[in-house]
Amino acid sequence: MNHLFKRTLIFLCAVFSLFFTSCKAQSQLIEGEEETLVRENLQYYLYYPKEYEEKKEEDFGLLLFLHGGGESGDTLGIIKKNGPPKLIAEGKQFPFLILAPQNPYKRKWWNVRAVMQLLDSVVQNNRVDTDRLYLTGLSRGGSAAWEIAVQYPHTFAAMAVVCGMTPIPYASWINKNMPIWVFHGTEDKSIPFSESEEMVEKLKQMRYPVKFTVYEGVGHNSWEQAYTTEELYTWFMKQSKTE
């Protein structure tokens, strides 16, 4: 009798255990909503051409420049190492404003939403021709430029990307009326040349107005040649946004 009772008790315990385990394992789908707030502190340089003060009735174009990963952090002066900020520090004059923000995170991608909020603020508080906004970036900044072109397809009149990387499907979401100029070195070990090569090929197939400058034998520092190409800036100046 005791033996039968023990077997019955063990059986019942096993049944209850399976029942409660089954109850705990059931999945649930709930609805929720939460308003999020993301704050970003962006340091930046803003360059004004000398004509800006002389021609007070004129609106000027503006070039948004996004640096590479090596210039990220909290020391603003470091972004003068490359691109237009470097040329400005060396004395070069440009015919348009140049906005050069700094990505505060050494190990994170650009917060493109924050960058665009900064751009909006600068445009609103200066004499800027919104039909002549230009976009450029190198390396990680070049990748961010591709992303911005996708998320804000009707903002810029032209874009130049130097050794950036981008998913090929982005090609379908970029404004087909925006001229694009891509630069890349064939021996780039950080961001493979194929990143630009394949994207440019896709854009050409889709009949985008795209130019491609290939630097044979050049590594990741293709920006040294790209941003000293005077034709790049005259090319920008020829572009005006069309919807």
UniProtKB/TrEMBL annotation:
Coiled coil: none
Entry keywords, A to Z: Signal
UniProt-recorded Gene Ontology molecular function terms: hydrolase activity
Gene3D superfamilies attached to this UniProt entry: alpha/beta hydrolase
Dienelactone hydrolase domain ranges (all copies): 118-221
Signal sequence segment: 1-27
Entries under SUPFAM superfamilies matching the protein: alpha/beta-Hydrolases (SSF53474)
PANTHER family: BLL1128 PROTEIN, UNNAMED PRODUCT-RELATED
Protein's UniProt name: Prolyl oligopeptidase family serine peptidase
Source species of the chain: Lentiprolixibacter aurantiacus
Source lineage: Bacteria, Pseudomonadati, Bacteroidota, Flavobacteriia, Flavobacteriales
